[in-house]
Design brief:
- Strand 1, helix 3 and strand 2 form a beta-alpha-beta unit.
- This protein has a two-stranded parallel sheet.
- The radius of gyration is 15 Å and the shape is globular.
- The chain is built from 6 helices and 2 strands; from the N terminus they run ααβαβααα.
- Helix 1 packs across helix 6 and helix 4 runs parallel beside helix 6.
- The chain has 123 residues and is mainly alpha-helical.
Length: 123
């Protein structure tokens, strides 16, 4: 991860010096109940490369706005959203801080942290 990402995580007291990312695999998709993306390009990637995951993939903003807390099981609530047909707009995206300064990354980390808290309440 970039040094700016590391600094943004450190701002939240998170350290992960051994972090390694990997591309989403078919096994990841099968195992997932929900695939949470940050922007339209991420959702489009899943729809294109892993179409079997399209019905359970959306941006975190969209999920926070639509998933609801309900008493129904998560799989039922996700299915009801019909995510494979949802058009993701700019308002549903977390803006990628790439190219920004360290403060831009910190601001993004704060935003993501808040969205994760809201999403956890719905899960």
């Amino acid at each position: 991860m970039s040094q700016r990402t590391r600094a943004a995580l450190a701002h939240h007291g998170i350290k992960d010096p051994g972090h390694r990312s990997h591309q989403l695999t078919a096994t990841d998709v099968v195992r997932a109940d929900l695939i949470v993306a940050f922007e339209r390009d991420h959702v489009d990637y899943v729809r294109r490369i892993h179409p079997e995951g399209a019905t359970k993939t959306a941006t975190i903003r969209y999920l926070v706005a639509t998933l609801g807390n309900g008493s129904r099981p998560l799989a039922d609530r996700v299915a009801a959203l019909r995510l494979d047909g949802v058009e993701i707009g700019d308002a549903e995206a977390v803006v990628d801080p790439a190219g920004g300064d360290e403060q831009t990354f910190i601001d993004c980390a704060v935003e993501v942290s808040e969205l994760v808290d809201h999403l956890l309440d719905r899960l």
